[in-house]
Structures are given as C-alpha cells and as structure tokens.
Design brief:
The complex is a heterodimer of chains A (329) and B (176).
Chain A (H helix, E strand, L loop, with lengths): L4 E4 L3 H10 L4 E3 L5 H6 L7 E4 L8 E4 L2 E5 L4 H5 L2 H6 L1 H8 L4 H6 L2 H6 L51 H7 L3 E5 L4 E5 H4 L18 E8 L6 E7 L10 E10 L2 E10 L6 E2 L1 H7 L6 H12 L11 H17 L4
Parallel strand pairs in A: 1-3, 2-3
Antiparallel strand pairs in A: 4-5, 5-8, 6-7, 6-8, 9-10, 10-11, 11-12
Helix pairs in contact in A: 5-8, 10-11, 11-12
Chain B lengths: L1 H8 L8 E8 L2 E8 L4 H8 L18 E4 L2 E4 L12 E3 L12 H8 L9 H13 L6 H7 L10 H13 L8
Parallel strand pairs in B: 1-5
Antiparallel strand pairs in B: 1-2, 3-4, 3-5
Helix pairs in contact in B: 3-6
Chain lengths: 329, 176
C-alpha cells in the first residue's frame, strides 16, 4: 500500500475543503471498498480524509420521506423502524447485501459509491481496463465474465455495479443530497449513475470536491407491496447473479403502479422503465409479468460468460412480481 | 553499495507518515506511534502481541479477524488503526473473565466446534455479537447471521450446535 497522510475531518465543510485542496485525495468512511482497493494497489491516494466522525449518522423520518445520513451504516438502516414498516425491500436488500461485520462498517453513502467487483479492474497487473486506464480496452469481455453486466454494457466495459441497496433505492426514486464547496445540490439516484458504455472511467456525477451528505427515500403509498429477490451461487454472503426489487400497487387485479429495479445485470443499478411501462395499467397476471421481463432484457449485450443472465434475470423478475402481487396464475 | 550511494544522491525516500494513536483494547489504553497504513489487525497482532485475532484473507472476505468496536462486530483487516482511536476495542483475549472462559468459548470446546482452530477466534467473536443482537433464535438464523465467518475445515454443524447451546443457556445476556 502506498503511504498516505491521514486526516480526520470534524465537520462537513472542512471535509469538502480538504478534498478541494488535493485533487488526488480520497475520503475514508467504512473502508470496506477503499482500503481493500488500496491494498490491491488499484487506488493510491496520497491523502486519506477520514469522514467517519462527521455528524451525518442520523436516520430521521420527516413526513412521507426517510432522511438517511450518509454515514449511517447498513446495519443501522436495516434496523430502522420505518424501514421495517414501509420499506421492506430496502431492508431485504440490506440484509442480503453483506455479512453483519461488513454491514456494521459500510455506510449508506459508501454503499452507493462502491466500486465494481470486476476481477480485472481489481488487479492492476491486468493492462486492459477502461475503468482504470481509459482507452486500454476491457479484459473482461474476453475473460471470465460470470459476475459481469449485460445492461449498459458494451465491448468498452462490462463491469457490474454490485450494490443490492442501490437497486432498491433506484426503484424507490431516492434522492442523493450532495455538499460542494460553495453550494449543495440534490440529484435523483436514477440520474446519479452513468453507464459504462458511456464512460467506464466515470461512474457517477459526483465531483471530486463533493460529498454525499444524505440519501432521501420517499415512502411509497401504504397500499404498495414490495420485495427484493436475490439469486446467487450460495445461500448467503454472496454477490447477486441477478436480483429484482419490485414495488406494486394492485387494485382489483389491475396494476396501478409499478417500480422495478434490477441487480446483478447492470453497469449501474438498473431501473427497469420498460417493465414498468408494460405493467402499469395492465392486469396482474403471469403473462403480463413475462411480457414485462421480456421488454426489460431486450437490450442486453452479452458475452459467452454472461449470456445465461438474460433468461435468469427474466425469471427472477417474474418470480418476484408473482411473490409481491400474490398472483401465480 | 552503488545502489545505496545513488539513492542517497537523489535523497532518502521520505519517511511514511506516522501518527501517535491511543487504542483502548480490552479496557486497557495503549499509546503507539505507527505508520498511518497500519490496520487495526496488524496493530493488535504485531504491536500489541494480541495474536488471537487471525489474519486470514486480509481483504474482508473470511471473518477470521472479527473483533468488536464499541460492541459491534467488525473486520479488523479493513479498519485502519487510526479509525479505531477513541473506540472500545474488544478481542478474543478480552471476553473471558477470572472465573473462566466466556460461555461461547465453553460451548465451542464442549461441541468440538473447530478442527484446525484458525477461524475459531473470529467465529467466537461473531457468535458473541450474534447473541447480543438477538439472532440466535433458530439454526437457520444462526447460519444466516454467521455467514460472514468462513471455516475451511467445515466445522459448521458443530459451530451451529455450540451457538444454539450457548444461547439456550442464557447467552442472550452474555456479556460483550
């Protein structure tokens, strides 16, 4: 690991100022991505700004929205009463997202900013990685690509965004609150991420001298039902092959509202607008669910290692639509 | 010789940044001057001689380095020592008392919940936390909430049995 200066920020504006002072500096929160990639030699910041003691830990319900401090941990958010009552798919995504040890460390802001698990990105001895070295190519396209993306993917990059939480949050239209040097702004999470076929080296719209301070989750209507289904190679403590976050409002057999997020398939947490379009206003039947899944995976770009994900993702979505709606016919 | 001389010509490599850190481990404060890169795991093992906490994968995957930070289980390999300043650090060396082993340690011995023993300190630290979290309600729950601790010998059935037993003996109230 390259030597670094360790600085502990005490307030948010100071943290942003410290970031602005040094274009190569990085923030340290839970450390579960940052330190791991520093050990691997993928990240080599000369200065690390420890932000864990900033006052951004609170989780507070205000009206019909949950305001989650960026430094709240995954475990703290999963234990929140409003999450249990109104946001079950957030809770399910969190509890399936990592071991308890990691959940006690990893923060909500850090979870959204986690880097890909692509083994070629994480190995600096691999030359071809458009994420690490723009223009160098993509080793994964010709490589072992079982854990890679098929949506928002291209020959430039097929690195998967592996967050489970972010899949639920894009479906829920969560909003990211960002503090910059002179001003604060908010960005819908659906517009926060960039796809790898556009810019493998840049994953989101956060500028260097900006900090996520809060994630705001609008609460779905009380009539909504939701859930998160994660399909993986072992029963626990494993990344998704495919996953589906589903929220439905069904009245008299008709789907009034549908919000769908897909995981394990996208270079960013994937909001499945095509599926929502098919579902909204249609009757809640398995035939409708299959049409929705078909529409969503239509634009998939696969390599031999990832081709299995297209039918698997379709089946994952149909299964979770059945579970959430209670309709199996 | 030439290597050393030429290196001197261009100046010594600057010393890596260090920091004086005060770590409170098992109730005792320790002041240490350390490179900022030192993880909590390496500080415990190499500086304090508390080698019960094990270095398995060193990348947050195996759980062998599980310790408690302010009562919560975390991975010492992905925690900088500097981040643990001002926090209460508890290691496997700190859970027994003068009367004998912690109930979870006792249960692991009675159920033969290990083979080589390398993952055991992490398993026990995780199990003690699991019971405090109230997650020892069933074998299924124990398996799910112990899934961050891997055992290559495959001692899982006996680990689950040990935790079930410790929990049934009032382990929910077991001290952290």
């Amino acid at each position: 690991m390259r030597a670094f200066d360790y600085v502990r920020a005490t307030d948010t504006r100071e943290a942003v100022r410290l970031l602005a002072e040094d274009p190569a500096a990085s923030c340290l929160a839970g450390g579960t991505t940052q330190l791991d990639l520093m050990k691997d030699g993928v990240l080599e910041p000369p200065r690390l700004i420890d932000i864990t003691r900033l006052p951004l830990h609170g989780i507070e319900r205000r009206g019909e929205a949950l305001h989650v401090g960026a430094l709240a941990t995954m475990e703290e958010l999963a234990a929140d009463a409003t999450v249990s009552e109104r946001l079950p798919m957030v809770r399910e995504a969190l509890l399936q997202g990592a071991s308890v040890q990691l959940r006690n460390m990893a923060t909500i802001g850090g979870n959204l900013l986690q880097r890909t698990r692509c083994r070629y990105f994480r190995d600096p001895t691999v030359g071809a990685c458009n994420k690490r070295a723009p223009g160098s190519g993509c080793a994964a396209v010709q490589g072992a690509a079982r854990m890679h993306a098929v949506l928002g993917a291209s020959e430039r990059c097929i690195a998967l965004h592996a967050s489970d939480l972010a899949v639920a949050l894009v479906a829920l239209d969560a909003v990211v609150h960002i503090q910059g040097l002179s001003e604060a702004r908010t960005v819908p999470l659906t517009e926060f991420y960039l796809t790898a076929d556009d810019s493998p080296e840049r994953e989101n719209v956060l500028e260097h001298a900006e900090l996520i301070t809060e994630v705001e989750i609008p609460l779905p209507p009380p009539a909504a039902r939701s859930g998160y289904l994660k399909v993986r190679d072992r029963a626990s403590y494993e990344f998704a092959l495919t996953s589906a976050a589903v929220l439905l409002v069904v009245e008299d057999g008709a789907i009034r509202q549908a919000r769908i997020g897909l995981g394990g398939v996208g270079t960013k947490p994937w909001r499945a607008y095509e599926a929502e379009h098919v579902l909204t206003g249609a009757s809640a039947t398995t035939a409708t669910f299959r049409d929705a899944a078909e529409a969503t995976m239509h634009g998939a770009w696969t390599v031999p290692g990832t081709a299995f994900k297209v039918p698997l993702a379709r089946r994952t979505l149909v299964r979770e639509l059945q579970t959430v709606s209670g309709v199996t016919a | 010789m030439t290597d050393v001389a030429s290196r001197r010509d261009v100046g010594e490599r600057p010393a890596a940044p260090e920091r004086i850190m005060t770590l409170t481990v098992n109730g005792r404060p320790y002041a240490l001057r350390m490179d900022t890169r030192v993880t909590l795991l390496d500080a415990l093992r190499d500086r304090l001689g508390l080698v019960g906490t094990k270095k398995g994968c060193d990348q947050g995957a195996c759980g062998a380095c599980t310790v408690h930070l302010d009562g919560r289980r975390v991975l010492a390999c992905l925690t900088l020592a500097a981040q643990a300043e001002g926090r209460a650090i508890t290691t496997i060396e700190g859970i027994a008392d003068a009367d004998g082993p912690h109930p979870v340690q006792q249960a692991f011995m009675e159920h033969d919940a290990f083979q080589c023993g390398f993952c055991t300190p992490g398993q026990i630290m995780s199990a003690v936390a699991l019971m405090a979290e109230g997650r020892a309600g069933s074998d299924e729950e124990i398996r799910e909430f112990m899934s961050g601790n891997l055992c290559r010998c495959g001692a899982y059935p006996n680990i689950v049995a040990a935790i079930r037993d410790a929990a049934s003996r009032g382990g929910h109230d077991a001290r952290l």
